[in-house]
Amino acid sequence: MTRVVAVNSNGGPEVLSLEDWPVADPGPGEVRIRQTAIGLNFIDTYQRSGLYPQKLPFVAGNEAAGVVTAVGEGVSEFKPGDRVCYQGLLGAYAEERLVPAARLLPIPEGVDERTAAAILLKGLTAYYLLFKTWPVKQGETILWQAAAGGTGLIATQWAKALGATVIGTAGGPEKTALAKAHGCDHAIDYRAEDFAARVREITGGRGVDVVYDGVGKATFEGSLDCLRPRGLMVSFGNASGVVSVPDLGVLSRKGSLYLTRPTGLHYFARREDLLEGAAALFEAVRSGAIRVEASRSYRLDQAAEAHRALEARETTGSVVLLP
User: Fold this and answer.
1) Which segments constitute the Enoyl reductase (ER) domain (predicted)?
2) What is the pLDDT of residue 293?
3) Hey, CA dihedral for 170, 177, 119, 133, is it positive or negative?
4) What span, in angstroms and rounded, lies between the C-alpha atoms of 243 and 260?
5) CB within 10 Å: which end of the chain, N or C, has fewer?
6) What does the pLDDT look like over 27-69, one tens digit per residue?
7) How confident is the model at residue 238, as a pLDDT?
8) Please, what are the domains in the chain?
9) Strand pairing partners for 70?
10) How far apart are CA 232 and CA 142, in angstroms?
11) pTM for this one?
12) Cα 128 from chain centroid?
């Protein structure tokens, strides 16, 4: 048996239930791992609430790091004792679990397990957004909404290392200061300023080349107003609510804009793409281009408290659960 945080019915953080579930021996192509750190992400709250429906009951969570304890038939890439991590696999809020070997990644020397769990999903999100969805080039100007969040702090540093001018938004002076310390050339307090007007001022009226917006409903219209003609709006999250666009004509009226709603599920469907992204991420961490901010940790039995803090925008950087 292993301790897990289960969801038996959809709802608020109170539906998260600490339980004992069985964990089997690994089958063909599987690896059993003892988890040492678990990443907390907004997608966890979407699945818990039912916004992203899952078959009930299920174990919450989507990324973690740990140590291999057993391997199944046909697994040659990993052995007991190896340090590994993964992302995008439901069931992470657990002390032990089985994982398909094809979805596991080795943790390189120079990166500890807590760091791997704190950055993998967020860092790979930043990777595909900055390198694949809109390959950021030196001299371009980008806007990152929620720049003091876990993904934001990674992405803004990375974008700055690529040579972009980085504008970020955050709520309050402490978060804007954190954003400026992590790659933002300009940090806008959206609680105190009209961020779209400020972006236009910063860019001399031109607008930015691309907006990365994981906030969703509350910022969508304003984000469109920040773009230059034929710029790209990348809507990749729903922290404030789901975005709906009933009138596509808004894109033409605001400058023949482009709009995309990407997901890592499609960018990392092939293992070679996953390995490429992870290699780039870990190299950026080891080189110092990305400094990791694991701002807070919770015990596994405090998962509900962690969800409340995340949804209330009380966290900055990456948050981990410790089994």
Assistant:
1) 11-321
2) 67
3) positive
4) 12
5) N
6) 999 999 999 999 999 899 999 999 999 999 999 999 999 999 9
7) 83
8) 2-120+270-322 (3.90.180.10), 138-261 (3.40.50.720)
9) 32
10) 10
11) 0.90
12) 11
For 78-226, strand residue ranges (E) read 83-87, 96-100, 105-106, 141-144, 165-170, 186-189, 208-213
Pairwise CA distance, residues 143 & 302, whole Å: 34
Q: Are 202 and 178 in contact (CB under 8 A)?
A: no
Query: What DSSP letter does each residue of 99-141 carry, written as one string?
Result: EEGGG-EEPPTT--HHHHHHHHHHHHHHHHIIIIIS---TT-E
Based on DSSP, count helices (H) and strands (E) in the chain, helices before strands: 10, 16
Q: At what angle do helices 150-161 and 113-128 cross, to 10 degrees?
A: 70
Peptide bond into 173 cis (omega under 30): no
- Confidence (pLDDT) at 316: 77
pLDDT value at residue 292: 84
Amino acid symbol at 311: E
Q: Which two tokens stand for residue 234?
A: 């990348």
